[in-house]
Amino acid sequence: VVELSETHREIQRSVREFVKSKVEPLANTLDSREAPLPDEWIRAMGELGYLGLTVPESYGGAGLDALAMALVTEELARGWLCVASVMTRAIISSSMILAHGTEAQKKAWLPRLCSGEMLSAAAFTEPAAGSDLASVSLRADRDGDGYVLRGEKTWCTFADRAHVLTVLARTSGAKHEGLSLFFVEKEPSLSFSPHVSASPIPTIGYKGVTSYALSFDGLRVPSQALLGGVEGKGFRQLMSSFEYARIQTAARAVGVAQASLDAAIGYAKERVQFGVPIAQHQVIRHKIAKMATDVEAARQLCRFAARAKDEGRRCDLEAGYAKAFAAEMAERTTTEAMQVFGGYGYSKEYDVQRYWRDARVFRIFEGTSEIQYEVIAKRLLDGGLA
Ligand SMILES: Cc1cc2nc3c(=O)[nH]c(=O)nc-3n(C[C@H](O)[C@H](O)[C@H](O)COP(=O)(O)OP(=O)(O)OC[C@H]3O[C@@H](n4cnc5c(N)ncnc54)[C@H](O)[C@@H]3O)c2cc1C
Prior knowledge:
Order of helices and strands: HHHHHEEEEEEEHHEEHHHH
Distance between the termini: 32 Å
Helix content: 40-55%
Strand content: 5-15%
Shape: globular
Bound molecules: flavin-adenine dinucleotide
Oligomer: single chain
Strand order of the largest sheet: 2-3-7-6
Number of strands: 9
């Protein structure tokens, strides 16, 4: 078991308080109305330091470790997945800037990302390039002292409310070495440029944030937008964020699953059938026991990966185990929680159907389960990743 320090426990308690008082009372209503995640919560997350948790204090962050990030994420996702997902974007962009940005970029972007003044969205996926990100085709062509972006992106979650888009673009023909990352600053609206059009993608869950297909038709960006000031490093720069992103996604899955387990336990103790609470029927008892075992196994895998990250070790294998297992665990646990609720589990009046709809996305984003197993298999069978 990964031990938690007093600081870890304190931060866990404080997030729990925030989620219980602000998020839990409203999440299901907002989800069923397809209403956006309130600005007030995002502002509070910035003020409480959640958006810059792992960034050093010298750049405006909280200077905490990956384990703290996993704990905060789990608690936020326990309230509502989309709340924890605002943090995902901050973690991905700040980890790439810290590792690869120029000093000027670190100073310009990190404090604003940490405070929530600058919210980011990731524009990596394209209609024809999802798992195979190295085949991205949106072009960034040099033009005077800047670049011009042309092409399509899709599934860019939070593009409407973000102040910066992290765009993976092609600057030359070479497959991996032809890609570069651009931090494209914008107004927090969809009509930030006549050269970018956006259309929302309707989804079955993950409400509170919206994903967009984006079409770039000659958007000019300054050369300072190029991460690290060098072309051709974008794929490697992006890969360097995968460990953090996968640990964080595993923690999101644990949070959603834990919420469904809490709900199932509460309901099973109250719902009476055949003269006793259903929690006294052995099948239900064992169902809940199995769910709890599954959630705890995923939590420990996630913390184990976070620990490895904090010890400065390569942890793509551990992060892959955690992400793959937690994603499948969340799907199993939330569906079993719905089962405990019987017919009420299918009603929108209860949160449990929201957990189930939200949990389904974990096997798809941040690297599908199939890709996670491929990463794991490559390390185990082929002695490393190419
Ligand atoms: C709700 C949601 C939010 C998202 N948010 C963002 C975001 O903010 N930014 C962003 O850039 N992207 C985002 N995505 C996109 C997401 O990262 C991609 O959907 C994901 O990477 C998979 O790509 P794809 O959808 O093109 O599927 P594909 O890559 O086409 O895969 C289709 C199927 O084939 C399998 N497959 C593919 N290659 C292999 C292989 N080599 N071996 C075995 N199986 C394989 C996959 O596992 C999958 O089952 C989001 C997606 C969703 C659903």
